[in-house]
């Protein structure tokens, strides 16, 4: 009897010990099983994220067959949705088409695909029918951390509803170079502490709902704000000292890591203070392993920026770039120029001993664990019937409009030109991006809704000189003139100045002697080029809410209280902003 009691007691004790022992998480178990199921070649392919355009091509097309080859046969790790640029127009994807396509691809995948998107200003950066948010610099100008948290949370919800689990945001660059052609309004501003606080808020918001788990990404490490080169075109250089980098560029990245950011995206630019060799940070072991991993103690996923960008691809072949990035400490290869060639190069590096299989397995396991963390092991398909319930909620759109309103900054207002006292006598000239863009047309629609009596003309930068001169002549007959200038950072453009014949047009309008108000829809530094304008409004965004805000500001339908999150050299310092009362 005593022996039986001892056995029962032992069994109870063992059960108690087992109960308090930390369990192996499901994440570890599932991811490791997935890894064991993959061949060495398939493990290498798991490190690749390849692009698609959110379309649902017919299964008999060449395009569809290529995706089948990449997903079913090569077994790439995931996809990233991009805008399609066609005939000079940027086409965003339809959520339903994308979701239907992703469901097909997920059914083909041996291991679930992780899907990403550059949703810096919400899903609307790539998708239609989602909440249209202003650019991040508008959030810096409004400086409402709760609004930035809401941006993160709404982005997470809309992303997951469409089948996207990896949000390549927030942009963590400090835009302290007015000539920067590729960051600009994608940044929260030039104050590293302000940028850091908003980076942290976005991540907190994106992580706030356990039902909508997404991966976040701080980019572009170690900071892309102080360069005048677009890394899509060439290798930019940040010449700052280690001390300056630590005090400025790295501050938002440190905040992101402290906030639990899931991944960090590298920059294709040289940083001599951190890497003596003139190579991109993406392939620098000193920067990726030495600084990011060892000094900043980041343990999450490290992903490259798009590997087809010329800041990297001009220097190395697709395969060599991939191998060098992995040697540097990168885990994920984003948008390789040739996915199949990239996998062949990685396997050749393993066979030669340049890379070890252990090194590949470490990164592959991190990718697989990220997939389990986002719940892809439980559900990989999009529920099409519930999709519209999660997108563009009225309260979300109202919040986006409030941010856009609060961001508008009045930098100059000679003789109280604004708000316009007699809209019927004023003329607006919309300097749109081009004939294939809806930007500018939407602004005119907003104006007609608020002041149908005010004349508005949409221009194109490629119009003949004679026609632009004729339009400038017409402007001289107006009581005063509003110029609505669309200029923003965009890949392969190389600058953030007015395009085509616009500069000469603006100078001719200024020469007429009429009071001119310049409204910067995007790049806030335009005042440097046209300091002779009577009034200057900055909106920091080309998105619809900012278009509406600029119309209301011109007409005095709202107060203007915004403050510059950047310095306009020689004209206005960070934090400056004139107050404008609402017209009764």
Would you mind describing this structure in some detail?
- The protein has 584 residues and is α/β, with parallel strands linked by helices.
- The protein has two domains: 43-390, TIM Barrel; 408-555, Glycoside hydrolase family 3 C-terminal domain (Rossmann fold, 3-Layer(aba) Sandwich).
- The protein is 40% helix and 13% strand.
- The chain has 20 helices and 18 strands.
- The protein has helices at 2-20, 26-37, 40-45, 62-74, 95-108, 136-142, 145-162, 192-206, 242-247, 250-258, 285-295, 310-313, 318-328, 339-352, 357-373, 394-407, 441-450, 465-475, 502-511, 544-555; strands spanning 48-52, 78-81, 84-86, 89-91, 114-117, 166-167, 217-221, 236-237, 263-266, 269-270, 301-303, 333-334, 409-413, 426-431, 455-459, 480-487, 516-522, 535-538.
- Helix 6 (136-142) packs across helix 16 and helix 8 (192-206) packs parallel to helix 10.
- It is globular.
- Residues 1-27 have low confidence and may be disordered.
Strand order across the largest sheet: 13-18-17-16-14-15
CATH architecture of the largest domain: Alpha-Beta Barrel
At the fourth level of CATH, the homologous superfamily of the largest domain is: Glycoside hydrolase, family 3, N-terminal domain
Looking at the structure, the CATH topology of the largest domain is: TIM Barrel
Estimated radius of gyration: 26 Å
Low-confidence stretches: 1-27
CATH class of the largest domain: Alpha Beta
Q: Counting H and I runs of at least 4 residues, what is the number of helices?
A: 20
Distance between the termini: 94 Å
Helix % is 25-40%
Instruction: Give the total of beta strands.
Output: 18
């Amino acid at each position: 009897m005593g022996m039986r009691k001892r056995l029962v007691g032992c069994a109870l004790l063992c059960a108690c010990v087992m109960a308090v022992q930390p369990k192996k998480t499901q994440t570890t178990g599932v991811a490791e099983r997935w890894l064991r199921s993959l061949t060495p070649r398939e493990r290498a392919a798991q490190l690749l994220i390849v692009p698609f355009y959110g379309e649902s091509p017919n299964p008999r097309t060449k395009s569809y067959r290529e995706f089948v080859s990449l997903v079913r046969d090569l077994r790439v790790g995931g996809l990233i949705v991009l805008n399609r640029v066609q005939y000079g127009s940027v086409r965003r994807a339809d959520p339903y088409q994308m979701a239907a396509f992703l469901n097909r691809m997920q059914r083909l995948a041996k291991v679930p695909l992780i899907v990403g998107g550059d949703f810096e200003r919400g899903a609307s950066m790539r998708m239609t029918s989602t909440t249209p948010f202003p650019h991040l610099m508008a959030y810096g100008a409004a400086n409402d951390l709760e609004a930035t948290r809401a941006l993160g949370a709404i982005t997470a919800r809309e992303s997951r509803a469409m089948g996207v689990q990896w949000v390549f945001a927030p942009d963590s660059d400090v835009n302290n170079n007015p000539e920067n052609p590729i960051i600009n309004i994608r940044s929260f501003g030039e104050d590293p502490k302000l940028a850091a606080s908003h980076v942290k808020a976005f991540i907190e918001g994106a992580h706030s709902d356990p039902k909508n788990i997404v991966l976040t990404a701080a980019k572009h490490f170690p900071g892309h704000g102080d360069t005048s080169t677009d890394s899509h075109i060439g290798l930019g250089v940040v010449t700052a000292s280690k001390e300056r980098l630590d005090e400025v560029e790295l501050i938002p990245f440190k905040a992101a890591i402290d906030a639990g950011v899931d991944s960090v995206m590298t920059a294709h630019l040289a940083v001599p203070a951190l890497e003596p060799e003139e190579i991109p940070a993406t392939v620098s072991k000193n920067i990726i392993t030495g600084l990011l991993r060892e000094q900043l103690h980041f343990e999450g996923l490290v992903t490259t920026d798009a590997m087809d960008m010329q800041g990297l691809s001009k220097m190395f072949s697709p395969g060599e770039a991939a191998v060098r990035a992995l040697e540097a400490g990168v885990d994920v290869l984003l948008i390789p120029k040739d996915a199949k060639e990239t996998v062949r190069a990685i396997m050749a590096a393993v066979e030669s001993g340049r890379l070890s299989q252990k090194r590949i397995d470490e990164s592959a396991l991190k990718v697989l664990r990220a997939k389990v963390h986002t719940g892809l092991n439980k559900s990989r398909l999009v529920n099409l019937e519930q999709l519209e319930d999660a997108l563009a909620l009225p309260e979300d759109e109202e919040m986006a409009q409030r941010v856009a309103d609060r961001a508008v900054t009045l930098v100059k207002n000679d003789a109280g030109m604004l708000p316009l006292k007699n809209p019927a006598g004023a003329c607006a000239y919309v300097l749109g991006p081009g004939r294939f863009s809806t930007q500018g047309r939407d602004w005119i629609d907003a104006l007609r809704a608020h002041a149908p009596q005010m004349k508005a003309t949409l221009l194109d930068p490629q119009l003949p000189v004679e026609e632009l001169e004729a339009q400038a002549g017409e402007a001289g007959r107006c009581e005063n003139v509003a110029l609505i200038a669309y200029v923003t950072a965009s890949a392969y453009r190389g600058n953030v100045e007015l395009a085509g014949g616009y500069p000469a047009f603006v100078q001719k309008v200024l020469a007429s002697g009429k009071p001119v108000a310049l409204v910067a829809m995007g790049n806030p530094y335009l005042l440097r080029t046209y300091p002779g304008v009577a009034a200057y409004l900055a909106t920091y965004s080309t998105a619809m809410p900012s278009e509406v805000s600029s119309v209301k500001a011109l007409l005095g339908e709202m107060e203007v209280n915004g403050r510059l999150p950047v310095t306009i050299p020689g004209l206005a310092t960070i934090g400056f902003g004139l107050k404008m009362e609402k017209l009764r």
